[in-house]
Every structure is written in C-alpha cells, then in structure tokens.
Write a structure and sequence with these properties.
Blueprint lengths: L2 H11 L14 H16 L11 H4 L8 H12 L34 H39 L20 H10 L6 H9 L11 H19 L5 H14 L5 H8 L8 H17 L19 H23 L5 H19 L1
Helix pairs in contact: 1-5, 2-6, 2-8, 12-13
Amino acid sequence: MTNAAVREATIKSLDGRTLTRHHGRPTFKGVGQTRHEVAQAYAKAKTSHRAFPMGSKFGLAAAVLRTGKYIPLHNGAAVGIPDAEDLDEAWEFEHPVRPDPYDNTPLPGNLTVQQREMRRKEQEAERNEEIVQYDVFEAYETHYKEQIATAYDESYLEALENELLGFTHVTVSEMLEHLREQCLAMTSREKKQKLKEVNLEWEQGDDVRVFLSKVQKLQEQLQDQYDLDWAEDVRMTHIVSEFADSNIFTEEEMMTWEDKPREDQTYAAMVAYFTRCYDKHARYGNAGAPKSHGYESANNVTDQAKEELLQLMLQLLSNQNEVTEAATADKEHLQAMSDSNGDLLDIIKN
C-alpha cells in the first residue's frame, strides 16, 4: 500500500466519528469535552513514531492532551518499565514533520559492500515505517480539524481560518487552544468561590490510590472546565489533612512526613510515602477502618467497667436527691454536694 493510500484508508476508517456539537460562545467545559473526545480517538491509534513518547500505550494522544495532564500519565505508566524515562516537567509535544523519502545518513566506511547494502535496506524500511506512522497521524489531524470546525459556530474559528488554506496550516491542538481563548473567563471572585467548594473527602473503605485518583481527576476537571489551577501545594495540604483525620496512619507516620525537609516533600514523594504506609497497614488488616468516635468506645468497655459506671450514676442520682431534700440546709453543705456531683460527672464523662 502506498503512503497516499495509507492516508486515505485512515481517513475513510474515521468516517462517522463526530464530536459533540456546542452552540454559542465556547465554554471551558465544552472545549474540555471536545479535547477529551479527540484524545480518546487519538489514544486508540497506537504508534511507533518517535515524536509520541510511549505511543504504544497512549497512541497519538500526546498531540492533543495538555502537558499538565499527559506528563503525569506518561510518568505513571513508565514506573516499572525497563529503560523508560520520565518526561521532564518542561516537556512539550513537538508536532512532527513529514520525513524525507530517503535516509541519506552516511554509513561507516569500514563496512563491506554486502553489509552496506543490508544497512541501506534497514534504513529504507525504518524510513518507510516512519512515513506511514506520520501519514496516519496527519489523517487523524485532517479528520478532526474538520470535526472541530463543525462542532463550533463558525464565528469563533474564523480568525484562525485562512482564506486559501482553511485550517491546513494549524494543528488540532492549536484549534483547541484558540477555542479556549474565546471562552468567557471567570472573575477572581468566581474562581475563589469555586476553589472554596473543593471538599473531596477520603471515604472510609476506599484504597488510598482511589482517593489520590479522585483528587487528580478533580484537579483536571477544575483546569479543563473552569480554567482553574488547583495548586500542587494546596492539593498536598488537602490530601495530608485527610490522611491525618482518617486515624489510619499513626501519629509517628504523620510526624515522619511532616519532619521531612521541604525540598523532599514533593507530590510524588507524598504519594509514594503514604501509599507505602497504607499497604503496610493493609497487610495487618487495619487499613480502611472507620474513623473512631467517642461513643464508639462505649461498646468496648469491660463488664466490670460497665458496673462501675452504673454505680457512679446511681451515686450521682442519690446526691441529687439529697440536694433536693436539703434545700433548706446551709450554703456550705449545698456547695459541698454540688462539688461532689461535679466530680462524679467528670468521672462518668471520662
């Protein structure tokens, strides 16, 4: 199959894949939904092209996902994979260009004629595969640029469209970023109010990884739908606070984290530390236990303690009756009885 045929076949295979239609002025939520729909389709197109890190797992998705979302996805998947390197925080996707038809890389001079011929054939095969992968990507770009243009009112993309080139001179990612710029920005007051509403609790019984995943999804939702940055240090404070309130981690474990040097208290380090502690508790069966409350401890007192508690309450009742009968007694006696009752109440509460 020729390269042109590969491109046409790919475009044909995408026929019928449409995007949700959005009327009126774009919203952060709407553009976020469009990006999600495009990324889902791109992720299914697995690739070996070098421009797409871990393309065998995430396909072409790196071309449309925002770096703040793709980098954690990539680095999380790279854990445990030999020779897999994390993407740097400053990494950005570089849109590839179509390779030249021939690879003119010089060959070492010490090769025999047969070796040189074999190496040239290998280079040609590698170059052909790279061109095929590129053409598949370009086919996806062509299809989804048309779909984005259909999904939004023409007026919000006309500044990006060229009279002669249409949208061929821009990428899908650039179209999505342009639409974000057309969204009505939230005021500072609205952003402050939305951040106040962030109150994601760690539900008892959930694995710690489930909770951390919920936090990550909420952070992405705030970014995609409201253009809000839930700062990493604020997220960490929220997470550690939930861990402390859970009564699953010991005071020593919490203080060990708090005592770490500031530069070591990174988000990744926090996740690794508390996940390790949680797994340790899970092995001994006390992870996921409900939070303890004062009234729950009454179920654990011994029969002897219950009997002593009953006697104290009877004594308190007797004293109250004596106070009533001694209403005409002197103030000193009444004060003594009141002090005694106060002491008994303290004992019973304890």
